[in-house]
C-alpha cells in the first residue's frame, strides 16, 4: 500500500558513546559514527519501507552535499524521493547527536529547508493516491498550516485515507500552532512533554483527555498511553533512542493498514521502536521481521 510522508527531512550525524565533550582541541575515541536519514517524515518513511510499504516522501531539502546524501540514502532504502524539493542556497536540515552510554541523545540542530515547506511543494495527486498519510513535524513546517491543505486532508480522509501526525519540537508557541491540524487528522502521536504543552496539562493522561480520543501519547521507556491504557515498552538493551518515535509511528500506521484495532497497532509500533533502540540511528534494528 502506498504511504505518503510529509514534512521534516533531516540528516543525522551520530556518534557513540559520548560521556563528555572534550576540552579545547582534545580528541575522544568513540566506537561508531553514522549518518542516517532522519526526521519525522524521512525517518518514518524509511521505517515504513522496511515494514513492507511503498512510500513517497514530500518536503524540502537544500541544494547541498547533505541534500545529496539524503536523496541517496533514502533512495537506497527504497523511498520514492522524486517529490522532494531542492532549495537553492538553503541548507539541508541536520543534527549532530552525541549519544550517551545510556542511549540518551542531546543534539545540535540546524532547521534548514524544513522551515520553508508550503503546500505549493506538495503534489495533490500524490496525496490523493495514498492509503495513509503521515504528517511529520507540522509544528516546524509553518507553511503547511494552510486552510487549503486542511481541505485536502479532509477530502482524502472522507475517501478512506488514514492521516496521522507526529511532532518535532517541544517549543510551546510552535506546538500551539500545530493544534490547528487536530481536526484534520485521524491520529496524533506526541511524546509526553509535547502532549502536556499542547494541552496545558501536568500529566499525560490529563493531556490526552483534553486533546481528544485519537491522541496516542508516547512515554519513552514506559511505553505509550492509548485510550487510557498503558501499552508497555518492550525490554531491550537500549543503545540509542534516536528514531524510536519515528519507528513507533511506522509500526502504528502499519497496524492500522492491516486492519488492527488501535491497541494492536500501538503494540506493533512499540515493537518497531524497540528494534530501533537496539542500534545506532533511526534505521537500526530488524523491522523486516515485523512485516
TrEMBL record:
One of its GO terms (biological process) is phosphate-containing compound metabolic process. It comes from Nonomuraea soli. It comes from the Bacteria. Residues 10-283 form the Carbohydrate kinase PfkB domain. This is Sugar/nucleoside kinase (Ribokinase family). Pfam families: PfkB (PF00294). One of its GO terms (molecular function) is kinase activity. One of its GO terms (cellular component) is cytosol. InterPro entries: PfkB_dom, Ribo/fructo_kinase, Ribokinase-like. The keyword Kinase applies. Keywords: Kinase, Transferase.
